[in-house]
Structures are given as structure tokens and as C-alpha cells.
Amino acid sequence: MGSRPKASGAARFVFLSRITRKKNLLVAIELLRSVEGLVELEIYGPVIDAAYWRECLALVGKMPPNVIVMYRGPIAHDRVPAALGANHFFLLPTASENFGHAIVEALLAGCPLVTSDQTPWLGLSQRGVGWDLPLHDAKAWRDALQTCVDMDAASYQQTSLRASALGAQIAATDTAAEHRDLFRSIFERGISSEPARESGSPNAVGVGS
């Protein structure tokens, strides 16, 4: 579950992946430029393509004052859940993903998804756990991101709960193929992912570990 409180008008996004052109970090940064409200983006992952990273940094330097971008560097696997849980939404406009382990990790952390339709994880909005969007539809991306920022605490809590419950279902299987099959069956058969109810500053790129 995400550990940060969520207020309407503000949101923390996290990008956790290798920094290459295929993962479309530059697209993510560009999309956030037009979002209204207080926005933070934390970036985790090794720089694989140095020239592409320079393009990203150049765009970060042009961000409006309401959007803060921080680069945290590579991250050890045992620190991933805490990093994801400290943010509200997982942002990954990837051009292609065969599986996407970080996507499953984000769900487990209760971090709803804003990702492309080029992954196996589709039908996210129908399940109330995020969005899977076509890369050519910039308006759909901006609308989804603005919805994230505008979401109030109660709505976010329910979305986060659904995400973590779905992540737990996926993680309970043993192989990537089984993960994909389970995810598809959840959508095709309408298996509920609802958890059981219990009773009773200026723009900056901060380099860190």
C-alpha cells in the first residue's frame, strides 16, 4: 500500500525502469508538463542510453514550477517496494513490454498504473487499477494524468486497494505465462480483485542512490 497521503490537486509519480528510448521516459516528462496541480516525478533506474538521458535532462530544465523531477539512480531490488509505496502512481509509457515485472511490483505496492497498451497488462481502467493507453493519443494520457492529480484521498485509497489486491493475485502464480493467463482470466471472467472488507520548489533533478 502506498505510504503517502493523497490530496486532491497533488500527486507523486514514479518511473522505475532502465533509461532507454524504448521506455519513453522523455514522453513521460513531456506529458507532465501540461498537468495542472502539484506534481512530483521520481525516476529510478540505470542510464543505459547516455544521449537519450541528456535529452531527458534538457527537458527537465524546461519544466514549469509546479512539476518537480528527481532522479534517484539505480535501486536495489529489496528497496523497490518502499520506493513504489512512497509514490501514488506508477508511470511507464513503454513502447513495448513482454512482461513488465516492475508493473507487477507496482500493483503489489498499491501503486496504480499509468502505462501504455504495449504490455500484457490490459483492461486496467475497467478494473479500476489504472490506465493502459495508446501511445499516439496524447490527450488520453494527459486526461489520465490530470485525473490522477485531481483524485481525492478516498478515491485514491480504493484504487490503491484494488491495485494491491490484483498484484497479490498475480504474484501468487509461479511463472510469467501463468501471470499473463491469470490476469487475462480476471478480466475475461470478471473475477473480483476487491479486497475483503475488515470489520470492526523549483524544478530539480536530485541525484541519489
What does this molecule look like?
The protein is 40% helix and 16% strand. The chain is an alpha/beta fold. Helix 4 (101-108) links the parallel strand 4 and strand 5. Strands 3-2-1-4-5-6 form a 6-stranded parallel β-sheet, sandwiched between helices. It has a single domain (10-189), classed as 3-Layer(aba) Sandwich (Rossmann fold). It is built from 8 helices and 6 strands. The two termini are 22 Å apart. Helix 4 crosses helix 7 and helix 7 crosses helix 8. Mean pLDDT is 85; it is low at 189-209.
List the helices and strands and how they pair.
Blueprint: E1 10-16, H1 25-32, E2 38-44, H2 50-60, E3 67-73, H3 80-85, E4 89-92, H4 101-108, E5 113-116, H5 124-127, E6 130-133, H6 138-150, H7 153-171, H8 176-189
Parallel strand pairs: 1-2, 1-4, 2-3, 4-5, 5-6
Helix pairs in contact: 1-2, 4-7, 7-8
Helix/strand-derived category reads alpha/beta
Oligomer: single chain
- What is the CATH architecture descriptor? 3-Layer(aba) Sandwich
Mean pLDDT comes to 85
CATH topology category name: Rossmann fold
Beta-strand percentage? 15-25%
Q: Total number of β-strand segments?
A: 6
What is the CATH level 1 assignment? Alpha Beta
Largest sheet: 6 strands, parallel
Helix and strand pattern:
EHEHEHEHEHEHHH
Number of domains: 1
Biggest sheet: strand arrangement: 3-2-1-4-5-6
Relative helix content: 25-40%
- What is the tally of helical segments? 8
CATH superfamily: Glycogen Phosphorylase B
Q: What is the terminal separation in angstroms?
A: 22 Å
CA-based gyration radius: 16 Å
- The coarse silhouette is globular
Which regions have little confidence, pLDDT < 50, spanning 5+ residues?
189-209
